[in-house]
Amino acid sequence: MPATQPRTSGDVEPSRWPGERLGLPAAGPGSVGRVGRRLAALVIDWVAAIVIALLFAPYSSVLHTWLTLGIFALMQILFIPTIGGSVGHRLVGLRVVPVAGGWVGPWRPVVRTALLVIVLPAVVWDSDQRGFHDKLAGTVLIRA
How many C-beta neighbours within 10 Å does residue 143 have? Predict the structure, then answer.
């Protein structure tokens, strides 16, 4: 019996590197942003949201929790279409771009952020290391 190439569900050839099927390079500028940078960006954005929320409510309050989440979401929605990513993304050298090219527009950040704040879609990845939130929004997080 001849050896066959390993397959994933849907009978799709596995990628040799994250982003290969999207036409992205294996490394360097334009490659898929890896986990370390993504987590660093998330921590930067979350800490910024916490600090801003502290201006309006004490840390231990329920209001502070909701303010932090709202500020985090607002930062994503405002900064992705204007500066190419959140403050955290830009500080660690990442950009959010549409898979089809062009400008990310106003709706992609809203969809991406709505899914990001419910967490689960962000931790479900494909072989291109794109979270479900990026897949549904038609975006990919790349190195700048």
Answer: 19
Q: pLDDT of 58-71, one tens digit each? A: 999 999 999 999 99
User: Can you read off the two tokens belonging to residue 39?
Assistant: 């987590």
* Amino acid making up residue 102: G
Question: In this structure, what token pair is assigned to residue 88?
Answer: 């955290």
Kindly state the average pLDDT of the residues 91-108: 95
pTM attached to this predicted model: 0.85
DSSP character string of the chain: --------TTS-PPPSSTTGGGT--SSSTTSBPPHHHHHHHHHHHHHHHHHHHHTTS-TTSHHHHHHHHHHHHHHHHHHHHHHSS-HHHHHTTEEEEETT-S--TTHHHHHHHHHHHT-HHHH-B-TT--BHHHHHHTEEEEE-
Distance between CA 45 and CA 59 in Å, rounded?
A: 17
For the segment 105-133, what is each residue's pLDDT rounded down to a tens digit? Answer: 999 999 999 999 988 777 788 888 888 88
